[in-house]
């Protein structure tokens, strides 16, 4: 019988689904495995938790400090487990019905920090022989949710992650540093001139501004600063933020040096023609930029969850964190007008991201045999 894998993800940002899709691509193309990628909070829980994906977008855009309080508030294990207990007792049938709806499946793969405790407990309650694997997609800020004891294997993105797990007493034989899962398109060599023609990009240095899946950050202010004080070509990706997309499109509809995009599935093409990426500090976007060797300026981050991503980028010398548009412009000119950009690209080239998705999938297939 053809194997089936159930992924646990939710559209709280774009990174969880991006990583799951990278793995699903390999499972499907190389192993002919069917992958199921439902939104767990929408399908497996009851209100108010069912509304979490929509609330996440609103909170991280408008109430980032409040989100940080929530993140740190449920970081201590007792508080985290108490929250999971509330979800469990308010959605007992929802959790069971979620698994029943998608059964049969040969294993569960979680790519979300908050989808490990109560989903694993429910799985063990009704399908105790089905393995549960956790693919960690955060870098240095690892929430308590990732450290769920009882999973069958933990796939870690960087060596520092293993240190955190070992420090908490996890058995080494259940841990593996396999890299960060990214779609294969990010490793393809592409013709820049053809892509520039496709997107109507002028023959200038190209700055890509990304606000993450929800279009968060001072995108408009940064774009305005670059437009006034540089001759760079500006590409803007607003994600799911339709209001921002409409506003920028109306403002810059006649400006040849600015191109505005909404939520895109071909970010690898935009990165291929870019000389600099200014973005929110989501781990997936960071790793995708590293894969394409595009220097980074991080303009904001989700408190708690993405703070470690900023530290990782700066410690590795892959770019800078700046939140003021004027400072972002200064750092951008340093990268683009001196040899600093080339040095950053060299450092990015030493980070081995190619093949991470393949390695993770190969290991899971081996574990299922």
TrEMBL record:
<keyword id="KW-0328">Glycosyltransferase</keyword>
<dbReference type="InterPro" id="IPR009695">
    <property type="entry name" value="Diacylglyc_glucosyltr_N"/>
</dbReference>
<comment type="similarity">
    <text>Belongs to the glycosyltransferase 28 family.</text>
</comment>
<dbReference type="GO" id="GO:0016020">
    <property type="term" value="C:membrane"/>
</dbReference>
<feature type="domain" description="Glycosyl transferase family 28 C-terminal">
    <location>
        <begin position="206"/>
        <end position="305"/>
    </location>
</feature>
<protein>
    <recommendedName>
        <fullName>Glycosyltransferase</fullName>
    </recommendedName>
</protein>
<dbReference type="Pfam" id="PF04101">
    <property type="entry name" value="Glyco_tran_28_C"/>
</dbReference>
<dbReference type="Pfam" id="PF06925">
    <property type="entry name" value="MGDG_synth"/>
</dbReference>
<dbReference type="InterPro" id="IPR007235">
    <property type="entry name" value="Glyco_trans_28_C"/>
</dbReference>
<feature type="domain" description="Diacylglycerol glucosyltransferase N-terminal">
    <location>
        <begin position="16"/>
        <end position="182"/>
    </location>
</feature>
<dbReference type="GO" id="GO:0016758">
    <property type="term" value="F:hexosyltransferase activity"/>
</dbReference>
<dbReference type="GO" id="GO:0009247">
    <property type="term" value="P:glycolipid biosynthetic process"/>
</dbReference>
<keyword id="KW-0808">Transferase</keyword>
<dbReference type="InterPro" id="IPR050519">
    <property type="entry name" value="Glycosyltransf_28_UgtP"/>
</dbReference>
